[in-house]
């Protein structure tokens, strides 16, 4: 099969790799219908987060079950399912508490898993999914023929759940003010003006740089909360405990346990209450993935959808 492999910073290739197969009884093989490129994939692309040469890449995908291991109970061949951006067993104490990202049996797509096996990345034709019962979430079969809905459902694998996690961490509540710190120019003054100089009750920090955390601290009101989900990179964090202490500011967040949020968010995506599909502003085939990385890196595309 063909899959995306990172060889070095700025060196992404789509190449032939071995077909995935059942290795553990709890595995399924999923044929990928939709995948995408994430802002956090760009850190590897830019060489700001380390990857081994030859490693698979991509952590957002959905597709159809093609093979089922003898230890899988919840899925059958032909089922449509979405994968969260890490796999998890669904049975350990962390998974039971909803913190699937801390599952000791879990792993990040494209990395070497706890069992020592190289895992598949999502930007390819198919993926071996470990611990399928604890990882995948089944989708209505009818969605497979609805292009816009499939695109919207793909956002469940990372960005929608991550945004939700930030909102939970920031204590977003009805009637409160919310500010989002994204990857653009800082507008401290504007937020202060809009909030009678007080700042926002809830601030979502979605970048992970020292500058973005300082911006978040600068626009949150006293007694407010910051929900942080930007993958921290760079040495300094921008977190000033003295300031937070003096102003009673809460900081909560981290890598989002999206597997826990998918069942909650799925009905809203299915009935259109939430439609995240517009976040994808570019659609490509698998062979164009290197171009997709280049365009997101150069900011001529925001988020690239892949149809293998
Ligand atoms: Zn677990």
Layout of strands and helices, then pairs:
Layout (H helix, E strand, L loop, with lengths): L1 E7 L2 E6 L11 E9 L2 H7 L9 E2 L4 E8 L11 E4 L2 E2 L5 H4 L10 E2 L17 E4 L2 H4 L1 E3 L7 H8 L4 H11 L8 E4 L6 H7 L5 E6 L4 H10 E9 L12 H7 L2 E4 L4 H13 L11 E4 L3 H9 L6 E4 L1
Parallel strand pairs: 11-12, 12-13, 13-14, 15-16
Antiparallel strand pairs: 1-2, 1-4, 3-5, 3-9, 3-16, 5-6, 6-10, 7-8
Helix pairs in contact: 5-9
Bound molecules: zinc ion.
Describe the structure.
This protein has 308 residues and is α/β, with parallel strands linked by helices. The chain has two domains: 2-158 and 256-307, Medium-chain alcohol dehydrogenases, catalytic domain (Quinone Oxidoreductase, Chain A, domain 1, Alpha-Beta Complex), CATH 3.90.180.10; 164-253, NAD(P)-binding Rossmann-like Domain (Rossmann fold). 26% of the residues lie in helices and 25% in strands. The protein is built from ten helices and 16 strands. The strands form four sheets. Strands 3, 5, 6, 9, 10, 15 and 16 form a seven-stranded mixed beta sheet that branches. Strands 11-12-13-14 form a four-stranded parallel beta sheet. Helix 7 (210-219) links the parallel strand 12 (200-205) and strand 13 (220-228). Helix 5 (159-169) crosses helix 9 (258-270). The longest helix has 13 residues, at 258-270. The chain is globular, with a radius of gyration of 20 Å.
């Amino acid at each position: 099969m063909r899959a995306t492999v990172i060889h070095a910073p700025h060196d992404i290739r789509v190449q032939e790799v071995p077909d995935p197969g059942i290795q553990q009884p709890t595995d399924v093989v999923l044929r990928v219908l939709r995948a995408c490129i994430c802002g956090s994939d760009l850190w590897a692309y830019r060489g700001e987060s380390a990857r081994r040469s030859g490693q698979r890449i991509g952590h957002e995908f959905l597709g159809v079950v093609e093979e089922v291991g003898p230890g899988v109970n919840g899925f059958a061949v032909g089922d449509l399912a979405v994968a969260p951006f890490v796999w998890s067993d669904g049975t350990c104490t962390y998974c039971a508490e909803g913190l699937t990202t801390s599952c000791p049996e879990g792993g990040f797509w494209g990395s070497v898993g706890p069992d020592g096996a190289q895992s598949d990345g999502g930007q390819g034709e198919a993926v071996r999914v470990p611990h399928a019962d604890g990882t995948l979430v089944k989708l209505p079969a009818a969605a497979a023929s609805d292009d816009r809905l499939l695109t919207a459902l793909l956002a469940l694998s990372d960005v929608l759940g991550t945004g939700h996690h930030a909102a939970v961490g920031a204590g977003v509540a009805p009637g409160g003010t919310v500010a989002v710190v994204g990857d653009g120019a800082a507008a401290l003054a504007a937020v202060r003006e809009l909030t009678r100089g007080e700042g926002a009750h809830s601030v979502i920090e979605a970048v992970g740089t020292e500058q973005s955390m300082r911006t978040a601290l600068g626009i949150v009101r006293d007694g407010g909360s910051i929900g942080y989900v930007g993958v921290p990179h760079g040495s300094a964090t921008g977190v000033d405990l003295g300031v937070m202490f003096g102003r009673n500011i809460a900081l909560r967040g981290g890598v989002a346990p999206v597997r826990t949020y998918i069942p909650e968010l799925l009905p809203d995506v299915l009935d259109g209450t939430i439609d995240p599909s517009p976040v994808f502003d570019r659609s490509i085939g698998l062979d164009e993935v290197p171009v997709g990385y280049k365009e997101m890196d150069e900011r001529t595309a925001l988020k690239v959808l892949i149809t293998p």
